[in-house]
Specification:
The complex is a heterotrimer of chains A (162), B (330) and C (498).
Chain A lengths: L3 H20 L14 H23 L5 H8 L5 H25 L1 H17 L3 H22 L8 H6 L2
Helix pairs in contact in A: 1-2, 4-5, 5-6
Chain B lengths: L2 H23 L13 E5 L6 H17 L3 E5 L6 H8 L7 E6 L18 E11 L1 E5 L7 H10 L4 E4 L6 H12 L7 E3 L5 H9 L5 E2 L7 H5 L3 E6 L14 H5 L6 E9 L4 H16 L1 H9 L3 E6 H21 L5
Parallel strand pairs in B: 1-2, 1-3, 6-7, 6-8
Antiparallel strand pairs in B: 3-10, 4-10, 4-11, 5-9
Helix pairs in contact in B: 2-10
Chain C lengths: L1 H10 L2 H19 L5 H12 L4 H18 L1 H7 L11 H9 L3 H34 L4 H18 L4 H15 L2 E2 L6 E2 L5 H4 L4 H19 L17 H9 L1 H16 L5 H15 L11 H25 L5 H12 L6 H6 L1 H32 L4 H20 L2 H19 L5 H24 L10 H31 L1
Antiparallel strand pairs in C: 1-2
């Protein structure tokens, strides 16, 4: 059976192998055996061994890993319930990164935040939108005015005039 | 409330804001004058060293004059390559500046990087230091001659430090050794990320001698942890009149020193230069800088941007010859 | 004496006092919210410290850290959900007291014990750190190499999961630390041609991702939303609380000293300090059956331990640059930002700043007494703020915080990637804390390793050539040997029985 630990074991060994392969090409210090590649290669070897050990102990253990069993034993809520909220969570950084330029930070942040909050509690949309917009405007104001972090003002500056 | 209803609401809210946003977008943002946001000031060496403290004071004076924060950031590593590349490869918009050091005229000779002094817009030379030879307080070496004798007796047996491999203080060591008729690697060089970590390693007994500037060793000398045996300069330092020059102490004729200066990436626009050039000259002449230089036992080597650019070309060519002579490059 | 005057002058400034109060309020709020940890509070405050002078910046962090740990008791007592993992040890006890109508007793005891723990921890920090720094001045690259190894060993072995998974997490962290321009040769490693990657993976956005974003994802995806409604009335404190604290002074002192020591151990933080102190108190108690049923001894012992561990965690952070726990790892980032590179020379160059920080520690714990009392009064209201409102607002804060690090959305990308990785690790029961320590200490470990190799001319025995280095090295190797031997034994037992 393909358990989580086995998947991790394979992933770790592949990762270790590629790190080792790339690090072999790193230069060494002049007149020294050590260099830029020494440490990454050392880590890669240890990581590969740990991955191997994880896989072996999973395959040959006398009884299944009690911790893994217990973890999977907890009834998690159906994933479909949390998918909208997770998507909205992911939308927050994306919207801030790509929409801040054209429409300004406040709006770019407030829209996905509103969606996120609605996905979590599913009630009172108007209040939610107002709360989110207010909070994002507050963050914008505090960070640009107080802390001088250059968040994109976009249309917010022209509307409010600051 | 059902899920589909919520979805509709989210969609509705989203559409409303997008329409609202679009109608307002035409307004556009106003053009602002430089500087309108914080400036990042990169130091290629570690916190606590001579370069770092210079950057902090210059940064502070710039901040006061410009009215925006000037964040001094240490980008150490790669024997200064990391920080120097960070300055050179930054957007030339005046929001990333930095302090470049003598290594700029050295690194490309060693093939560490393609960067030369031409990768920068020089804004003004600031502060300089002279090389020294330091040992741990209470060590067996009473003077510079004793150190040279010990190296002669046991070539390759002693360790030294001061900066990265092939850095200016490594050159200082190699130059001292070759001038004394020894091999350039008669002392095994232990790379460090600048003078401060090298001094810490010396105090801990990890290396036998260090050759960073006497100026950067001042705090450790005053704390009684480190003793300076010689300065690599034609004259004694005004700050340390008791320390002999290397020539006085051993008869070896070798001088080395380092400097730093404010620079930005090549191709800074004229409107930025119009703000920065007068400001840098003002800072060079300021009492704060003079006082700071004196306090920290550094030397003021102030030069305006145009004179400095000319000097950089000369230094760069001369450095190649010196490094070859000292056996650091082939 | 002149030094203390200078330090007092640095602390008794309006901005420092404001930083202490504001940091404390933020810490109290986040600590009281189930699912939001003290480390998260620190990670979210980092962007604010960019713009503060060193002493207020550090005051903000230490105040938030200390108060968040206490605030974790509040939902524990009222909802039976510990606010931070550090309060989990005695959550059952405080909740039982609340059920018995003595909410104010449980919380008041916790508050007083926390303040005592914090003060004792600060005292030990003030006296032990400069002495240790004196010793550390004689540390060369060999000693630092072994010290980093020992710290990472503790971090990997102490973690709650299996040691193997702790090691995997640690190695992943070390691997991330190698990304960027190499510090000895200047060669770009694992950057795949990206200029932004050359500077390395900056760990503050990564930390925000691992502690804040991953926690949010975890709360949304894995645990059914707990929507507690605290309705219990909290009675008024009276003088009998201080009388009871006096009665348990032995427990408080023992808990505080134990907590400071555990906190100073790299990798072990407030949660482990609380568990250890609770367990020892139970073993030594005349009434061990009370533990878990509202034991006042247990509350005092564990609550003083988790608060004192905060100051304890600062000891190795300041002296060696090796963080005592993940919160202290964030402090290291702030120290570098503020031109206070941690290490023994800091005690030579900037002693006044350090003593100012020590004084701020005392002030923060005295403030905790008052702010904590107010917080207990307000707690029933504050705990009504639902997670569904809080989570999106924290997410925005995370994004802005990661952006502010370099004023670029590259940091936000790192944050999200770190969040996803941390979630994947947690979902497989791989602890995150060793990875953080690996990221923070990777540079130091590699640098001291290479320096030592050059000094030793390739002779591995030179790593044991100095007495302190040799002892540290032998302890490290012995710990690994012991660990391997005990897992081997366990495996044999398992195969025999199975």
């Amino acid at each position: 059976m393909l358990t989580k630990n086995l998947i991790w074991s394979v992933v770790l060994m592949i990762l270790a192998g590629s790190v080792f392969y790339i690090a072999r090409g790193f230069p060494t210090l002049p007149k020294q055996a050590v260099g830029a590649g020494t440490f990454p290669m050392l880590i890669a070897v240890l990581l590969g061994l740990s991955g191997l050990l994880l896989g072996l102990s999973e395959l040959f253990s006398a009884r299944p890993d009690p911790v893994a069993d217990a973890a999977s034993g907890i009834p998690a809520p159906p994933l479909s319930q949390s998918i909208p909220a997770l998507l909205a969570l992911g939308a927050v950084p994306l919207s801030c990164a790509y929409l801040s330029g054209p429409i300004g930070f406040t709006l770019a942040a407030a829209m996905p935040t509103t969606a996120f909050m609605l996905a979590l509690r599913r009630s009172r949309p108007i209040q939610t939108a107002i709360l989110c917009f207010g909070f994002c405007a507050l963050i914008f104001w505090a960070f640009t005015k107080g802390l001088l972090v250059p968040l994109a003002p976009g249309i917010f500056r022209t509307v409010i005039g600051i | 409330m059902s899920i589909s209803k919520t979805k509709k609401l989210i969609k509705g809210a989203f559409a409303a804001t997008v329409i609202g946003a679009a109608s307002l977008m035409t307004a556009g943002a106003a053009l602002a004058e430089y500087p309108e946001k914080p400036i990042t000031f990169i130091v290629p060496w570690g916190a606590g060293g001579g370069t770092d403290t210079t950057a902090r004071i210059v940064g502070k004076l710039m901040e006061e004059a410009l009215g925006v924060p000037v964040n001094v950031v240490n980008r150490t590593g790669g024997q200064g390559v990391v920080g120097h590349s960070a300055i050179a490869t930054a957007e030339p918009d005046g929001y990333t500046l930095g302090l470049i050091t003598a290594e700029v005229t050295m690194m490309h000779w060693q093939g560490l990087t393609d960067l030369t002094y031409e990768s920068y817009t020089p804004l003004g030379k600031m502060v300089g230091v002279v090389g020294g030879l330091q040992v741990k307080a209470g060590s067996e070496y009473a003077d510079a001659q004793a150190v040279i004798d010990a190296i002669k007796a046991n070539p390759g047996g002693m360790t030294g430090s001061g900066t990265g491999l092939g850095g200016i203080w490594h050159l200082n060591m190699a130059g001292m050794l070759t001038s004394a008729g020894l091999d350039a690697d008669a002392v095994r060089w232990v790379p460090s990320e600048g003078a401060a970590p090298a001094l810490q390693e010396l105090v801990a007994g990890g290396v036998d001698i260090v050759t960073p500037s006497i100026n950067e060793s001042a705090a450790m000398i005053e704390a009684g942890e480190v003793v300076s045996l010689a300065v690599m300069a034609p004259e004694r330092s005004v700050h340390f009149p008791d320390v002999p020059t290397l020539k006085e102490a051993t008869g070896i004729d070798w001088n080395a020193g380092s400097w730093n200066g404010v620079a930005g990436p090549a191709g800074l626009p004229d409107d930025v230069l119009a703000v920065l050039l007068p400001l840098i000259e003002e800072i060079q002449a300021s009492e704060e800088l003079a006082e700071f230089v004196n306090d920290r036992k550094l030397n003021l080597f102030a030069l305006p941007a145009d004179t400095w650019s000319g000097e950089l070309a000369d230094i760069d060519a001369a450095m190649g010859d010196t490094m070859r002579a000292a056996g650091i490059i082939e | 004496m002149e030094l203390f005057q200078q330090s007092f002058a640095l602390v008794l400034q309006l901005d420092v006092i404001i930083a202490l109060v504001a940091g404390g309020a933020f810490g109290l709020f986040l600590g009281a919210m189930p699912g939001l940890t003290a480390t998260m509070a620190l990670a979210l405050l980092v962007p604010v410290t960019f713009f503060l002078p060193p002493v207020p910046a550090l005051s903000l962090m230490l105040s938030a850290g200390s108060m968040a740990i206490f605030a974790g008791d509040l939902p524990g007592a009222l909802l039976r959900i510990p606010g931070t993992p550090a309060s989990a040890a005695y959550c059952e006890d405080t909740f039982r007291l609340t059920q018995g109508g003595c909410a104010e007793l449980g919380l008041g005891l916790g508050l007083f014990a926390s303040v005592i723990g914090g003060l004792v921890g600060s005292l030990i920090l003030t006296f032990a750190a400069p002495m240790l720094a004196r010793v550390a001045l004689n540390f060369s690259s060999y000693e630092y190499f072994w010290l980093a190894c020992l710290g990472l060993t503790c971090a990997a072995l102490v973690s709650q999961s299996t040691p193997l998974k702790g090691v995997i997490s640690l190695l992943l962290g070390l691997l991330v630390a190698t990304v960027g321009l190499d510090s000895t040769t200047g060669y770009p490693r694992f950057t795949f041609g990206s200029v932004e990657m050359m500077g390395g993976i900056s760990f503050i956005p990564a930390m925000i991702g691992m502690f804040a974003v991953a926690e949010l994802v975890n709360s949304i995806a894995r645990t059914p939303p707990v929507q507690g409604k605290p309705t219990q009335r909290i009675g008024s404190f009276s003088s009998n609380i201080s009388k009871r604290v006096w009665k348990y002074r032995g427990h408080a002192t023992r808990g505080s000293i134990l907590g400071t020591l555990v906190g100073a151990l790299p990798g072990a933080g407030a949660d482990i300090a609380a568990w250890v102190s609770y367990a020892i108190s139970k073993r030594l108690s005349k009434t061990p059956e009370q533990f878990g049923n509202g034991s006042e001894e247990g509350i005092v012992a564990a609550s003083s331990a988790n608060n004192s561990s905060i100051a304890g965690g600062w000891i190795p952070t300041l002296v060696f640059g090796i963080p005592g726990d993940s919160g202290a790892a964030i402090i290291i980032g702030v120290l570098y930002l503020k031109d206070l590179a941690p290490g023994p020379t800091l005690f030579l160059y900037k002693p006044e700043v350090l003593y100012a920080v020590f004084i701020a520690f005392f002030l923060a714990n005295i403030l905790l007494l008052f702010m904590g009392a107010v917080m207990i009064r307000l707690s029933t209201n504050i705990l009504r703020v639902p997670f569904s409102v809080l989570a999106p607002l924290i997410m925005i804060f995370c994004v802005v915080g990661a952006f502010a690090m370099n004023n670029s959305y590259f940091g936000v990308g790192i944050m999200m990637a770190a969040g996803v990785v941390a979630f994947a690790l947690k979902a497989n029961d791989i602890p995150v804390a060793p990875a953080i320590l690996g990221m923070v200490l990777g540079g130091l470990l590699e640098k001291t390793f290479l320096t030592s190799m050059v000094k030793a001319n390739g002779d591995p025995l030179m790593f044991f050539s100095r007495p302190i280095a040799a002892s540290l090295g032998i302890i490290t190797l012995a710990l690994w040997g012991l660990q391997l031997w005990s897992s081997w034994k366990k495996r044999q037992r398992l195969t025999q029985t199975g």
